[in-house]
Design brief:
alpha/beta, 2-enoyl-CoA Hydratase, Chain A, domain 1, 2 domains, 7-stranded mixed sheet, two-stranded antiparallel sheet, 12 helices, 9 strands, 42% helix, globular
Length: 330
């Protein structure tokens, strides 16, 4: 009698564990709740759990597979710009709704919603700062704001940034990410392609350096304009870079495209970009490239400062010898 009761109790206990395991495995949201908020991060590429602080220390790059998680504009500035040197420009510029556009919701409501959610006025942050003590004008696009689509404010802020850099005779770096031109502004958004490109040409005429950094994803009108007009074009590993979407191209050509189509690696192979740089090496690489395009006295100062840091001048390598695909300004 006692054995029967024990067996029934054991059976019911096993059933309870089985039901609990079954119910937990079918609800991903429940699994997510079991992970302490903000303590761990699950890589969307390899699925490995990483301690959030360790991931942040590695600039949001997965230590297991090297996947580059998306970062916002504030974090990108912290990663690249020297502390206490960032001076934002044109923070007051805000988009309007000149076409009174409406899709699922009015465009003006969408703008207001994004501004409240992100704390940004639009999809790009611009400013002046220093990278390893070298002056730079930088624009950082933020994908959280309507997919970093390029509207009138994005074009205006980038144009003003480039014109300011031309006056100050300093290099321009733009961290690019975008879904393309902002359809809610129609032709006004398309005009920004020409406006920013014209400012870059005037910057180039002054024999000044421009480096776009292509991150995941960089598509549409941004790729068709300033993202591909750099003297030296860099990209993050595995970044999606292209104009039209993969599905649209396949339907148009009626062909299956290669798996690596529109990736940074494919573009490097075909000469569209000059180098793929991991995020953890980006600041160092930008500093080296900017230093190489400074007057000789500035280059000497930079080398000496790096030598003082490493205590060995032979460890200072400004740039590996290699052939670059694009033509830098003479």
């Amino acid at each position: 009698m006692a054995n029967n009761e024990e067996s029934r109790g054991l059976k019911s206990l096993l059933d309870w564990f089985a039901n609990r395991r079954k119910s937990g495995s079918t609800t991903p949201e429940r699994q997510e709740r079991e992970i302490a908020d903000g303590l761990w991060h699950k890589c969307s590429k390899c699925g490995v759990l990483s301690y959030t602080k360790d991931l942040a220390a590695n600039q949001m790059v997965c230590t297991e597979c090297g996947y580059h998680n998306r970062v916002d504009s504030d974090e990108r500035i912290r990663q690249l710009i020297d502390a206490n040197t960032w001076k934002p420009l044109d923070e007051h510029l805000r988009p309007t709704d000149p076409l009174q556009f409406r899709d699922r919701k009015p465009y003006i409501d969408r703008l207001r919603e994004m501004q409240q959610k992100t704390g940004l006025n639009d999809a790009v942050v611009t400013g002046l700062g220093e990278i390893d003590g070298l002056p730079v004008a930088m624009g950082v696009m933020d994908f959280r704001f309507i997919g970093a689509s390029m509207g009138s404010v994005v074009g205006e802020k980038l144009t003003r940034l480039i014109e300011q850099a031309t006056l100050l005779r300093c290099a321009v770096v733009i961290i690019c990410t975008s879904g393309g031109a902002r359809m809610q502004e129609g032709m006004l958004s398309l005009m920004q392609m020409a406006k920013v490109s014209g400012a870059l040409q005037r910057h180039r005429d002054e024999r000044l350096l421009y480096i776009p950094v292509l991150t995941n994803p960089t598509t549409g009108g941004v790729t068709a304009s300033f993202a591909m007009l750099g003297d030296i074009i860099l990209a993050e590993p595995k970044a999606t870079i292209g104009f039209a979407g993969r599905r649209v191209i396949e339907q148009t050509l009626r062909e299956k495209l290669p798996e690596d189509f529109q990736t940074a690696e494919d573009l490097l192979k075909h000469g569209f970009i000059d180098e793929i740089v991991p995020r953890t090496q980006l600041k160092k690489t930008l500093a080296q490239l900017i230093a190489l395009h400074q007057p000789s006295s500035t280059i000497a100062t930079y080398v000496n400062s790096q030598s003082a840091t490493t205590h060995n001048s032979h460890n200072v390598v400004l740039w590996d010898t290699r052939s670059l695909s694009s033509t830098a300004a003479d």
